[in-house]
C-alpha cells in the first residue's frame, strides 16, 4: 500500500477552490458529513450544485507526491455510495498517468489547483 505525505490544506487553497466554483456559478457548501447508500458515513470537502440542480462532490488532494490510482479508486467508491452526478477533483501537484486515465474513465473533472486563475470554464 502506498502512503502519501499529505500537505496541510491551507485556508488559501480552500478559499481559491470555493471562489473558483462560486465564480463559475455553482452553489457550494462544505465540508459536509453525510451517510451514503451503504450506511457508511462520509465527509465531503465541498458539495456542489449546478444550475441544472445536479449534485457533485468535490475532493481536494494537496499532496507532496504525484497522486496515484489508489486515491481515484477510493474517491470513485465514495461517489458511487453518495450517488452524486459527478466529481470535481482539485489536485496539487498532479495525477500519475494511470490515475489520470482512471479519473477520465470515471468522468471526474480534474482541476490543477496551481492553474485555477488561468482556467476560463469547467467542461459540462
Describe this structure in words.
The chain is 30% helix and 27% strand. The strands form 2 sheets. Strands 1-4-5-6-7 form a 5-stranded mixed sheet, sandwiched between helices. Strands 2-3 form a two-stranded antiparallel sheet. The protein has helices at 11-23, 69-82, 97-106; strands at 27-29, 32-35, 41-44, 46-49, 55-62, 86-92, 109-112. It is globular, with a radius of gyration of 14 Å. Mean pLDDT is 84; it is low at 1-8. Helix 2 packs parallel to helix 3 (97-106). It is α/β, with parallel strands linked by helices. It contains 3 helices and 7 strands; from the N terminus they run H-E-E-E-E-E-H-E-H-E. It has one domain (11-117): Trna Endonuclease, Chain: A, domain 1 (3-Layer(aba) Sandwich), CATH 3.40.1350.
Amino acid at each position: 500500500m502506498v502512503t502519501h505525505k499529505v500537505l496541510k490544506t491551507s485556508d488559501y487553497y480552500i478559499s481559491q477552490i470555493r471562489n473558483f466554483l462560486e465564480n463559475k456559478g455553482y452553489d457550494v457548501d462544505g465540508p459536509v458529513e453525510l451517510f451514503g447508500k451503504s450506511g457508511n458515513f462520509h465527509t465531503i470537502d465541498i458539495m456542489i450544485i449546478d444550475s441544472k440542480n445536479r449534485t457533485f462532490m468535490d475532493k481536494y488532494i494537496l499532496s507532496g507526491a504525484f497522486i496515484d490510482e489508489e486515491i481515484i479508486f477510493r474517491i470513485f467508491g465514495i461517489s458511487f455510495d453518495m450517488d452524486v452526478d459527478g466529481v470535481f477533483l482539485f489536485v496539487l501537484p498532479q495525477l500519475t498517468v494511470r490515475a489520470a486515465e482512471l479519473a477520465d474513465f470515471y468522468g471526474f473533472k480534474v482541476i490543477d489547483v496551481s492553474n485555477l486563475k488561468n482556467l476560463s470554464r469547467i467542461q459540462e
